[in-house]
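Batch job 17 of 40 flagged for manual review because the log was empty.
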Amino acid sequence: MRAVLGLLWVLHWLPLPVLAWLGRGLGAVLWPFAGARRRIALRNLALCFPEKTEAERRAIAFAHFQWLGRSFLERSVLWYASPARLKRLIHVEGEVGFADAHPGAVMWLAPHFLGLDVAGVAIQLHIARRGCSIYQSQSHPVVDAALKRARLRFGNASIFSRHETAKPLLRAIREGMGFFNLPDMDFGAKDAAFVPFFGVPTATLLAPSRMARLLDMKVQLVVAELLPGGRGYRVRFHPPWTDFPTADAQADTAEMNCRLQAEIIKMPAQYFWVHKRFKTRPPGEPSLY
C-alpha cells in the first residue's frame, strides 16, 4: 500500500487532463475484470431505471467505471496538491457563503457522487466555518492514516469515528462546527426507515432529520461533479432547505431521498452505483442481489 500511496503522490504532479485520460483508461480496463462490482452496478441501475433498455443501463455502468477510475487517480490531486492549485480546479457556485453568514448550526448534506471528496475540500477551502464529519475506519493501517491525513491537512476540520458515541460530534456541532453528512449508504435497519429511493423501499438513516430537529440545524445540499476532459470540478451549494426538518422524521427521510434522486438523474454515471444500496430488505423480503 505504501507503493500505491507513493504512486499517487507522483501522479498529483501531472496536469489534470492527463490524469483524467489515465483514469478513464483505468476504469475501462477494470470493467471486464471487476465482475462482482459490475453486477452490483448493473443491478442497481436496473432497479432505479427500469424504463431504460439494458443497453442504456450498460452504457451508464461502463461510463460509471470510467468516472470511478478518474476519481481514484484524481484523489492524488485532492490529497497532495497545493490549496492554490485546488482553488483553480474547483469551481464553486450557489450559496457558498450561507454557512458563514448563518448564526446557527448547519448540516451540509453530501450524497455519494464520485466527486464526494471534492465537496469536502471545497468546504474547507471556501468556507471559514470549521467542519466535522463521521469517519469509517479502514482495515489497513497505512490507508487509514493516509485518509485521515488527507482529510485533515488544511487544519480546519475534525472527524469522528463511526464506532464512537455521538456525544463528541454533537458537542462539536453545538460549538459551531458545520456537519458534513453522507446520508445515502445502507447501514442496516437500525435507526433507519424503509422509504422510497427510485421507487424501491430502501433502508435510509433517520439521523439527518432527527439531528436537524434536535440541534435546530439548517440543511444545505452540496453536490460535486467531475467535469469532462479534466477541466476541473464543479461544486454546487444549493439553497438551504426551508421545510426541513418537520416533526415527522420518516416523511423527512422520504423527501430527502426524493431530492437526492433529482440530482442523480442529472448525472447518473457519477453516482456511486457499485455500493449495495438495497442490501437491507424489509422483513420477509428476499435479497435483491
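Reviewer: the log was empty due to a logging misconfiguration, but the result itself is present. The radius of gyration is 19 Å. Unflagging and moving on to job 18.
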